Amino acid sequence: MFFQPTTVLEVKDLLADYKNAKLLAGGTDLLLEIKRDKINPKYLIDISHVDSLKEITDGEDEITIGSMVTFSQLLENPLIKTHFHSLIECAKGMGSPQIRNMATIGGNIINAQAAADSIPCIMSLDGVLVIESQKGIRKVSCESYFEYYSQERIKDDEILTKVILPKSNGLTGFYKLGKRNSLAIARMITSIYLSVENEIIKEIALCLGAVGKFPFRVKEIEREAIGKRIDWLYSEEPLNLLENSVYESIKERKSMPFKKEAIKGVYKAALKNVGWEDDRSDN
Predict the structure, then answer these.
(1) For 123-182, how does the pLDDT look when each residue is reduced to its tens digit (9 = 90+)?
(2) Does the global pTM surpass 0.85?
(3) Cα separation of 226 and 200, whole Å?
(4) Contact, 71 vs 176, CB < 8 A?
């Protein structure tokens, strides 16, 4: 059976009534799985006509992104351009123009593939996921959602409706290492948030993607960086911490030696994307 609701309330009612129904958003992953006979859902709920999920709204302290916002919309939105440089960089590298026109931020998050581009970016920005069902609304930090053995993952009767990103004056950077430029599935991602005052690091969030099963923040670097001069990020110490973090995350995998070395270059590229070096050279 195929449904085309026009409101979130209708979606929640359908999810409650039809167990194991699948939500169809952009369809870039789900339709491919159906075509390959990996899944054969009895019920499909097309949420592409729920206009409230396609909005990007400006709040006093936060920007709210509807789960059906496409990566093309992100690229064109002035609020995203103003506040979240890393998310713009992420969207730029999100496949071909055709894929960016179809793929949604909500679908990219909920499919939870290890190489999903947007998750490290949202995690480094302290993003919060808004998940709804007939039972109510819950808010979950992106970081908590993707912890190993997390109990926060979305249930069959729930829908991700929004992503909330706090506004900040900090700098952000993003870099994806892929096999074939923007059309590539990510081999590794680094996303950074950085707040600096008088060349002293006040806040930092550093997230890696496509390394292990889920994206994760490198807490060792985050703890060590606070209170240090910005130059510390370009030293050997964070590189060693980064290398060790990748090793501990995937030490049993054959890809570990490659990723342990390659992540250092991805990290340096993300730092360059933050733009601090350019800022320094102008002073």
Answers:
(1) 999 999 999 999 999 999 999 999 988 889 999 999 999 999 999 889 999 999 976 544
(2) yes
(3) 8
(4) no
Written as one letter, the residue type at 125 is L
User: Within a 13 Å sphere around the CA of 102, how many CA atoms are in the beta-carbon half?
Assistant: 12
Cα-Cα-Cα-Cα dihedral sign, residues 27, 93, 225, 247:
positive
- Both tokens of 129, joined, read 């996921």
Can you tell me the distance from the alpha carbon of 174 to that of 275, in angstroms, rounded to the nearest whole number? 11
E strands in the chain: 2-3, 22-24, 44-46, 56-58, 62-66, 128-133, 136-141, 159-166, 171-178, 186-197, 200-209, 216-217
Residue pair 199/207 in contact by the 8 Å Cβ criterion: no
The CA distance from 113 to 74, in Å, is 20
Tell me if residue 141 falls in helix, strand or coil.
Answer: strand
